[in-house]
């Protein structure tokens, strides 16, 4: 950039730059080069946006597949975290969520490795769900209740197996079929099926 006019801003700028040390000028050139490289790169935000959309689409497809698989078997429902949540919400409407909560507590209990924690957890689960007049008493027969009580004397990871199995069977035979017929599940399955149809029509 050049100018012969006295007092020209460009001339003043050139003189100012000439007075700068060489190291400063070299650094400025280096920064300019780096900026040029960055400006010619694809927009990072745009790239990330596409990635997020793909992940979201994948999650939706997985969710749709899950919802339709819940009706295949009770096991499929229990394997799905979102399925367990949906089933729990349904059980609340029937005031019987304690059955699923007990089953989940037993699953968590089986993962306990510490013998001290095993004993304390076993007593807590028994008092909350199993003993007569428990705050969240599950619907099991007297014999199973007594077997479970005796198991507490030497608590192991299997001490609730019989009570848990009885509760699971009750949910599978009683609550699960009603859940599949419920308006909430029917709506979810229709939406999942329509998403699946839409996906096939675009491929």
UniProtKB/TrEMBL annotation:
Signal peptide bounds: 1-19
Region described as Disordered: 182-203
Matching PROSITE patterns: RGS (PS50132)
Primary localisation category: membrane
Protein topology in the membrane: Lipid-anchor
Keyword set, alphabetical order: GTPase activation, Lipoprotein, Membrane, Palmitate, Phosphoprotein, Signal, Signal transduction inhibitor
Stored Pfam families: RGS
MF GO annotations: GTPase activator activity
Domain RGS: 73-189
Compartment(s) of residence: Membrane
InterPro entries (UniProt xref): RGS (IPR016137), RGS_sf (IPR036305), RGS_subdom1/3 (IPR024066), RGS_subdomain_2 (IPR044926)
SMART domains hit by this protein: RGS
Biased composition (Polar residues): 183-196
UniProt-listed GO biological process terms: negative regulation of signal transduction
Gene Ontology, cellular component aspect: membrane
Functional summary from the UniProt entry: Regulates G protein-coupled receptor signaling cascades. Inhibits signal transduction by increasing the GTPase activity of G protein alpha subunits, thereby driving them into their inactive GDP-bound form. Plays an important role in the phototransduction cascade by regulating the lifetime and effective concentration of activated transducin alpha. May regulate extra and intracellular mitogenic signals.
Name by which UniProt lists this protein: Regulator of G-protein signaling 16
Gene designation per UniProt: Rgs16
């Amino acid at each position: 950039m050049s100018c012969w006019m006295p007092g020209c801003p460009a001339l003043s700028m050139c003189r100012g730059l000439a007075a700068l040390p060489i190291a400063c000028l070299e650094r400025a050139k280096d920064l300019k080069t780096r900026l040029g490289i960055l400006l010619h790169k694809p927009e990072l935000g745009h790239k990330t946006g596409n990635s997020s959309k793909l992940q979201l689409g994948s999650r939706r497809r997985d969710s749709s597949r899950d919802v339709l698989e819940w009706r295949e078997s009770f096991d499929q429902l229990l394997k799905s975290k979102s399925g367990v949540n949906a089933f729990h919400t349904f059980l609340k409407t029937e005031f019987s969520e304690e059955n699923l909560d007990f089953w989940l507590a037993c699953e968590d209990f089986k993962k306990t490795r510490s013998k001290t924690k095993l004993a304390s957890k076993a007593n807590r689960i028994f008092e909350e769900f199993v003993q007569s007049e428990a705050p969240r008493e599950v619907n099991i027969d007297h014999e199973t209740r007594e077997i479970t009580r005796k198991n507490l004397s030497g608590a192991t990871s299997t001490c609730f197996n019989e009570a848990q199995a009885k509760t699971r069977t009750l949910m599978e035979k009683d609550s699960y079929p009603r859940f599949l017929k419920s308006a909430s599940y029917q709506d979810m399955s229709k939406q999942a099926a329509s998403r699946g149809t839409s996906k096939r029509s675009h491929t």
